[in-house]
Amino acid sequence: MQERLKELQTEALERVNTADDLKELNEIRVSYLGKKGPITEVLKGMGKLSAEERPKMGALANEVRDAIAAAIESKQKNLEEAAVAAKLAAEMIDVTLPGRPVKSGNHHPLTRVVEEIEDLFIGMGYTVAEGPEVEKDYYNFEALNLPKDHPARDMQDSFYITEDILLRTQTSPVQARTMEKHQGKGPVKIICPGKVFRRDHDDATHSHQFMQIEGLVVDENIRMSDLKGTLEVFAKAMFGSDREIRLRPSFFPFTEPSVEVDVSCFKCGGKGCNICKKTGWIEILGAGMVHPNVLEMSGFDSKKYSGFAFGMGVERIAMLKYGIDDIRHFYTNDVRFLKQFSIHE
Ligand code: PHE
């Protein structure tokens, strides 16, 4: 019996030694130390032993059991440590490797120009207003002093949806909408960027859809000099601090007087070059003093209040600023074009 126990011990320890995963080790534990294991089996024969031998054999059996259990435990520790080490080795990252750059998008050049202009005017106390692209004929034309049969409607060929609804041809309807909201009380000081639509044939300088930015100030004692000063600040901020502006008489039904605004050429400084077509001046926007009819129609007392408004094409400003020669570049989204405006590379 003693020999059998020793034999079992040697056999078990050998198996523990060669076990190479936790599952196998567990099987060894169950088969040697379990209730139905060989040690229990051997001890069943104890009844045949003398009273003297019995405790000795019991002690030996316990020794064997302990030895096997201890061997299993230490092997288990080894295997677990090895498993952790293998996992660490497999998952190791080399923090000294150079990182993979994350490709990031970029603002569209038109968005950049809009945001730059917004920032400038917000800094002067304006708020940003918005209006619908699908607009009522009333706001796009009538409230802007263009009654139904007014010949000036011919100036803008429009996309009509119904007789009374169209894609707005300008951002000026937001003037009327904003004044209406103010219910005859000034001051009004807004800037309004947005898409506009005209029935134009697309070419290098025309597009059936483009962007405008509208400005409107209504308060007591607003004068033409306020308009001129404001536009001068704008021109210098966009095109350089030594730019000058000049106002030429023009016509818009919703402003009186109306002007066309030119900026001194930023390329030749006024001497005349291909950009300014040898004139030294570049046209950048339309503007004027808000027509009394427009003030009245939107609920403002034109004896108490006066105002100025201006409107410009964002594409035109961006083309001038960045030297872009074809308006269609803005809409075809060729990444080679767009990447030139990246601030990341
Ligand atoms: N809405 C005019 C246009 O589209 C521009 C403009 C705006 C002129 C405001 C005067 C005042 O041509």
TrEMBL record:
Q: Single Gene Ontology BP term?
A: phenylalanyl-tRNA aminoacylation
Query: Which residues does the UniProt record annotate as the domain Aminoacyl-transfer RNA synthetases class-II family profile?
Result: 111-340
Enzyme class per UniProt: ligase
EC numbers: 6.1.1.20
Reply yes or no: does the keyword Aminoacyl-tRNA synthetase apply: yes
The cellular component terms of Gene Ontology attached to this UniProt record, alphabetical and capped at eight, are: cytoplasm
Q: Which reaction equations make up its catalytic activity?
A: tRNA(Phe) + L-phenylalanine + ATP = L-phenylalanyl-tRNA(Phe) + AMP + diphosphate + H(+)
Cofactors (names): Mg(2+)
GO MF? ATP binding; catalytic activity, acting on a protein; magnesium ion binding; phenylalanine-tRNA ligase activity; transferase activity; tRNA binding
Q: Which family does it belong to?
A: Belongs to the class-II aminoacyl-tRNA synthetase family. Phe-tRNA synthetase alpha subunit type 1 subfamily.
Q: How does it assemble?
A: Tetramer of two alpha and two beta subunits.
What is the protein name given in its UniProt record? Phenylalanine--tRNA ligase alpha subunit
